Amino acid sequence: MRQVFRWKSGVLILVLLAVSACTAKYRSHGYVPPPEDLQNVLVGVDTRATVDDTIGPPSTSGLLGDGNYYYVTSTVRHFGAFRPEVVDRTVLAISFDEADVVRNIETFGLEEGRPVRLTRRVTDNSVEGNGFLRQALGNIGRLNPGDFF
Question: What's the total number of domains in the chain?
Answer without folding.
Answer: 1
